[in-house]
Specification:
Blueprint lengths: L16 E10 L2 E11 L4 E6 L5 H8 L7 E6 L4 H6 L3 E4 L11 H11 L5 H14 L15 H13 L5 E4 L8 H11 L8 E5 L2 H4 L6 E5 L7 E4 L1
Parallel strand pairs: 3-7, 3-8, 5-6, 6-7
Antiparallel strand pairs: 1-2, 1-4, 8-9
Length: about 230
């Protein structure tokens, strides 16, 4: 398999998200019908709703992993597929996992190495900064099988964020993690300072109450697929 190298040390500024008239299907069933959503650069959008309402499907489309039946998704001037090519999208989905043959540190550094950076010091410093931010200093030399699920989720977020993407997609990110990992993830999602990326994350109704400073998109399964934005 040929690996495409991106520009070295390419960082992205947060970009606005604009969704218009979006229609998405899962199998033969329409799960999103006519969704409109606007988010400013650096904003946190929290997507919630009952199981089967299309949360993961929506996040997959924003991440460039699923094509819409109708409507459009724009991240700044880019389509999701165009932004993926520049390394501008970071994503963690529910079934993602770390690579067992690498340590936690190596897993987090992997995207920087794949992009073709020759500056090892830059790779080390950026990886070390993410590890420190997400509380993984004591775990960085361990293998994935030696850490908890919560620590694994933290490492996956660090791996997605280390590339400094324009938009960060986090699917069901607080599910099944311990209180310590959840607190660290919430601190990252709801920082005091300006976010370096626009964030679209999903979770259940209980976790929604823990997320501060977010615009909440509530997806409904009822007839008409009503959407509500709460601030």
């Amino acid at each position: 398999m040929k690996m495409i190298k991106r520009k070295q040390n390419q960082a992205h500024h947060a970009l606005p998200l604009n969704i218009s008239g979006l229609v998405l299907s899962f199998g033969h069933n329409s799960v999103i019908t006519g969704l409109d959503l606007q988010a400013e650069a650096g904003e946190l959008v929290w997507v919630t709703g009952d199981s089967g309402c299309g949360k993961s499907t929506l996040l997959e489309a924003i991440a460039g992993l699923k094509e819409a039946q109708r409507g459009s998704i724009r991240i700044g001037k880019y389509s999701p597929f165009g932004l993926v090519k520049t390394g501008g999208i970071g994503a963690v989905f529910e079934n993602d996992s770390l690579l067992e043959q690498f340590t936690v540190f190596e897993n987090i550094a992997l995207p920087l190495a794949v992009q073709g950076s020759s500056d090892r010091r830059s790779i080390f410093l950026r990886t070390e900064a993410m590890i420190s931010q997400l509380g993984l200093v004591d775990e960085m030399h361990k293998s994935p099988s030696e850490i908890s699920r919560g620590q694994s989720r933290l490492a996956l977020v660090a791996r997605a964020y280390v590339m400094q993407p324009a938009i960060l997609i986090l699917d069901d990110i607080l599910s099944g993690v311990d209180a310590y990992a959840k607190d660290l993830l919430l601190r990252m999602l709801c920082p005091v300072n300006e976010r370096m990326a626009t964030v679209v994350a999903s979770g259940n109704e209980t976790d929604t109450r823990l997320v501060s400073g977010a615009n909440v998109l509530e997806l409904g399964k009822m007839q008409g697929f009503k959407y509500a934005i709460k601030t």
